[in-house]
Write a structure and sequence with these properties.
The protein is an all-alpha fold. Helix content is 52%, strand content 0%. The protein binds a DNA duplex through helix 3 and helix 6. Keywords: DNA-binding, Nucleus, Repeat, Transcription, Transcription regulation.
Length: 140
DNA sequence: AAACGCGACAACCGCTCCTTG
DNA sequence: ACAAGGAGCGGTTGTCGCGTT
């Protein structure tokens, strides 16, 4: 299937979001709700592509979002879910209320992977295979 | 005090999946 | 049934701040 590129660099702004842009996006979604991401930036007066708006909303602006301070409990859950699901970050995020796939993915790639590999090096016999026995809590 | 290295995180990009006409 | 467009996902990159030398 041939697809038109949805992301055109054109005149659209890229890079870090400003407080003003955040406010425009937040206010628009608060008063109109989530709708078509493609047309949203135009209606909200943002010079961004819909993709960028979606990412910003999901990973940063959403009111129910928890940021930082991943607890040991959450960390343990992430590890178990990762054993179970692999790199299905959105599925893992779905089991952790208030956490985003991007945050979990970042956390995994920076902290956890390192922790786990060092653990693995220390105790190679203790890896994998038992994951399916571990009950995973389901939120929602 | 400056240079450098590294970790953390936000955002981009390309691809696939899903929905609709 | 098929094609096209929109939405979502996962990998990767860029940047910033902090600690170390």
């Amino acid at each position: 299937m041939v697809r038109k590129k949805s992301y055109t660099k054109g005149n659209l702004k890229r890079g870090a979001w400003t407080a003003h842009e955040d406010k425009l996006l937040y206010d628009y979604i608060m008063s109109h709700g989530l709708g078509k991401w493609r047309s949203l930036p135009i209606k909200a007066g943002l010079n961004r592509c819909g993709k960028s708006c979606r990412l910003r909303w999901l990973n940063y602006l959403r009111p129910d979002i928890k940021r930082g301070n991943i607890t040991e409990e959450e960390e343990d859950l992430i590890v178990r879910l990762h054993k179970l699901l692999g790199n299905r970050w959105s599925l893992i995020a779905g089991r952790l209320p208030g956490r985003t796939d991007n945050e979990i993915k970042n956390y995994w790639n920076t902290c956890l992977r390192k922790k786990l590999t060092s653990k693995t090096l220390l105790s190679p016999a203790d890896t994998g295979t038992k994951s399916n026995d571990i009950p995973v809590p389901i939120f929602n």
